[in-house]
Model the fold of this input.
Amino acid sequence: MTHSSHLPVSLSILQEVFGYGAFRGAQEAIVDHLCNSGDALVLMPTGGGKSLCYQIPAIARHRAGQGVSVVVSPLIALMHDQVGALEEAGVHAAFLNSTLSSEQAGKVEREMMSGRLVMLYAAPERVTNPRFLAQLDSLHERGLLSLFAIDEAHCVSQWGHDFRSEYLALSLLHERYPDVPRIALTATADDLTRADIIERLKLEEAQLFISSFDRPNIRYSIVEKDKPREQLLRFIQDEHGDDAGIVYCQSRKKVEETAAWLETEGIKALPYHAGLDAALRQRHQDRFLREDSVVMVATIAFGMGIDKPDVRFVAHLDLPKNIESYYQETGRAGRDGTPADAWMTYGLADVVNQRRMIDESPAEEEFKKGQRGKLDALLALAEATDCRRVRLLGYFGEASSDCGNCDNCLFAPATWNATDASRKVLSCIYRFHQNGGQRFGAGHLIDVLRGKLTDKVAQYGHQSLSTWAVGADLPEQQWRAVLRQLIALGHVVTEGDYMTLALADSARSVLKGEVQLLLRVPTVAPKKGRQSKLAKPARKSAAPADLDDQAQQRFDDLKAWRAEVAKEHGLPAYVIFQNATLAEMARQDPQDLDALAQISGVGAKKLEAYGTEILRVLAIA
Ligand code: ADP
Done:
């Protein structure tokens, strides 16, 4: 994007430096507020465009002679790429962390102290160490301390999932430099976390900017668990052949097994969890960021701060902890705004495991109560037969209407009235209990309901119970769904190591017929070819998929060229240009630098550095 001299400063920076035509949503108001030295707390979903909210004020303030902005980020491993992206765009930035030699660090410090540096990235423990504070004091005295940006601000909250004690010390920035504006940013939206951030970072005076949490390009699907690995493989093969994606599993063991298995099925999959050697973990992360089409199989240890824009899917093989986690994890898909999938398999064991983890945790009863409430909301989402997005956004306090881009909107699920079946389940549990006080698990319960004469049935004489074989008409899978729902709703509780079933007080209302249960008819796995049918609805931004043959050739050539540049610079490819930008170049096939400059994502520095090369690649293609 070329820049025009009579634009407001912030807009001209957006166009000239980053090559984007217009601000998104609240970005402009946030940028203005900081340029006017206000404090801000920004709540924006992942992919919403938080970085520009502090990068543009940092550049504008630096141009106005206000010196260096300090960006606090918890992720040392990613600072290199973030700084690389800024330098590619012609912005003088650097990071200070333990990976630098003392010589390198000394050079960065000199750049900072001279005020030449626009942005300095540092981890919280660095920012609050006495030596560094003395340097900040000196900058401050000379009027060269411009701005503090505190990224991933939810790390300060014990309610959040990523609590870091080092974040607590950041409150001293305000005490020490009350006149330096601060911006704290997070994608965590719940009220408790927000209140914590305000209190602990002393942001009472800050203006609050809350964006819509909707991610319209992400399609949410939750399928019933039935051979989950095969379901996952089919999902990847049918819909995401060559795409980069993340698969979340709960345990380290499952991460390793799933990655190894996908690998044998011909998918480039890598494991990531906190138990792996740090160097190996780093290598896998680098490959995920730098190569195309790597699938990262990970525990939740992976993902925070990963700003790879072209992750095309996030799959959950296990239920996340709550809706906040689900939304944050799925939000890592489709940051570039083009279509992406959030896909999850979910089954009875997930419900039981999550309930048990809460029950068995050493936390206070009050805390557990909160956790149970959160789990219930997630289970309701998983069992929902109406629009998933309406429920998700509703959870974050946002009203919306049917989205047309989730599984339930696209394929309205059939429902059946499971009230009678539920009563059969409950009375069977009741009979077990009556008949000797013994408790049993799901498998045995379903055997009794379906009239399957196993050794265990014979041993306990359960073929003489009044509930014996009363459910022979329904398949096992359907009984599991009923039981899962009853556990999800809290009418049935599971106990002990063997997950035996017991009735909760509320079961009485179901037994009396006061509660109606409407369940999804168990779904069959999505058929092949589904994607082509679904890809039709108008998309917000064009995916490379709709390039014609010639444009596709140009796109492939541009990608090959980009891969070389990225390798030479030691940076991920998307830092050079994002796929969406390359696709637009391929589609428009610009003939000169002026035309190339008009394409979104082409800033002045990149035009100067790569323009001629790109035109050459396009001309040969
Ligand atoms: P977040 O940190 O909120 O997850 P990012 O700052 O990484 O989001 O931005 C997500 C993507 O959106 C990035 O690829 C970024 O380049 C792009 N983006 C942000 N703001 C704009 C804008 N105004 N116009 C076009 N693209 C934008």
About this structure: DSSP finds 28 helices and 17 strands in the chain. Residues 20, 23-24, 27, 44, 46-52, 307, 309, 335-336, 578 surround adenosine-5'-diphosphate (CB under 6 Å).
